[in-house]
User: Fold these one by one.
Assistant:
Number 1:
Amino acid sequence: MRPITVNTLAQRKQAGEPIACLTAYDAAFAGLLDRCGVEVILVGDSLGMVVQGHATTLPVTLEDMVYHVANVARGSENALIMADIPFLGDVDPATALVQSGALLRAGAHMVKVECGAMEVPVVERLVAAGIPVCAHLGLTPQAVHRLGGHRVQGRDPKAAAELESLAAQLENAGAQALLLEGIPESLADVIVRSAGVPVIGIGASPRCDGQVLVLTDVIGLTPEPPRFARDFLVEGGSLEGAVRGYCDAVRARAFPESGVHTFS
Ligand code: KIV
Ligand code: NA
């Protein structure tokens, strides 16, 4: 298998072949995901919850991110490694650039930025510096306190129109992928139809060009998993079976299921 690049992701979108993405935070799980053919390994700041036991992603530092990205990079060969810019790392374009540099030097191939309107110039600056960016919009967990919890976004017409416009602005700013989290399926479909770049979903829509879940939600390690997740270990019987089952379900568009793992 050849290494996955941003070109591979674009080709898969064009060919209508869904992209399988999961999170990992260490070499052992990165190796498992890589062997199973997961295209994108996300070193998410969800490590604040999964690895560190915090209630939110806010305590995660750049140093934490760099440590976990380096571990994942040593454990995987072919997957594209996407790394989150941590809370306030995107407070301005210059800071985001320095933080992205540290993540790429540690082995990431793409950074993910939680985006509102303020982040459009941040994405522009990173792209101008040659850094591939995935723009994360909708439910952005770093804004958990402003949002009043991990709540579905874009439910009223005004908020939906704003997200639709933001997605277009981020793509114009040069984002090479979008990630939609926690928005109504109908809104996700509108964004997917107009996007020219791959759109990865979580709690979004089966029609996204790819899907992502937090690894622990897929292998039965989360006590109260979110409703948009599915435990693949139950059917898969082993860690490898679970990861392969997830990839197969994503590629067959059998996961997520409309109305079961999505919001109306
Ligand atoms: O940190 C993370 O794992 C994420 C995904 C939930 C998209 O950002
Ligand atoms: Na994240």
Note: Residues 6-251 form a domain with the TIM Barrel fold (CATH 3.20.20.60).
Number 2:
Amino acid sequence: EYGSVGFIGLGAMGKPMAGHLAKKLPPDTPIYVFDVVQSAVDDLCTEFPNKVVKSTNAKEIAEKCDIIITMVPEGSHVKSVYLDPQTGICSTDISKKLLIDCSTIDTATSLLVKDHISTHFPTASFYDAPVSGGVVGAVKGTIAIFLGCSETDPNLSRLTHLLQMVGKSIIPCGGPSLGLAAKLSNNYLSGIIAIAASEAFDMGMRSGLDPRVLKKVYAAGTAQNTICDKFTPVPGVYPEAPSSNGYKNGFKVQLMRKDFGLAVDMARRVGSKNVLGQVGLQTYTDAMNDPRCRDLDSRVVYRFLGGNED
Ligand code: NAD
């Protein structure tokens, strides 16, 4: 039913996602993989010797597979994976193929790739499908996937069947590039809440409040939100929060900076007033460049803002 499936970009997110497909796709459905880092490809082939097959570039994947998922860092990588004239997906005949880009990138690049595909291969289908839920969610198979299509899209049930192997909730967001617009506005909100929560905890604690009391207050009051509940920026308040584990194994501050920057650009382009955007962008840029914060979970913004960690 799936034909053969290809997966390009086996990093922190892509590798566990491809691993779920290797476990859950029917036995007669091979999965072809490619990454510019050879060790990432070799690791997955070793883990699933009878299921995962290595490929030498994106074009080879496009030749062999009916469905292709891509999961690379930025717009420039998406462009090269799809549009490189020698090795890109679009350098071979991709008529009737289903292409799903899960990378978090700007909407303009995604639309450019989609336009190129619909011009040259009108029977092929390309969807933006960014994900939320972090590396832990990718490993557990619980990520949310925001699909750039309408609820009546003819491919929706096929897409949903496949993507449910890697994630839990699959949300059609309305049309091309709207999965990305949804993802960027989500991360903008989550990023702003983390800054506001860090400041709120800090002013409360400096006034004499215990952060555990503050967490209860926010949960019971009008400030209730997931960042305070499960990603509490103050260490030692919620044991499973990255902050309580040295801000490790979370959503890295530089990734938050990347997504926040994309969101602010999007806001500017669509004429949204966005008064908090510049402050947030500056805060995450400075936090990312601070050696005490770099490579740590983005809620380390609490440390950057001078919060007490004792
Ligand atoms: P990553 O850097 O760990 O992995 C990206 C992989 O893509 C790497 O293995 C890299 O070698 C490969 N790659 C780059 N260019 C390539 C090319 N031209 N051809 C083939 N492979 C190529 O990044 P990640 O954390 O897996 O994130 C991937 C995307 O998912 C990003 O857009 C990110 O913003 C988004 N995302 C990440 C998280 C997270 O918590 N890490 C959460 C949600 C969404």
Note: The chain has a mean pLDDT of 97.
